[in-house]
Amino acid sequence: MGKETITFRLDAEKRAALDEIADGLDRDRSYILNEAIDLYLEVHRWQVEHILEGVRQADNEEFATDEEVAEALARWHK
Question: What angle do CA 20, 26, 32 make, to 5 degrees?
Fold first, then answer.
């Protein structure tokens, strides 16, 4: 995978926090930023996949039964 350089604006406090993390891990700022972007993309891809699956299920009228909803709620209240 090729690498590209991008430029964007960042608050000074965020830059300092990134540098502190990078120093603590003995890595450079670029490494930390790439890790952060990887995690961001992973979370948002997961969300989009689940949203699209929910829409597909709704379109196919695949809804949870009242019992399934009650069981799920009971697990959350424990």
Answer: 60
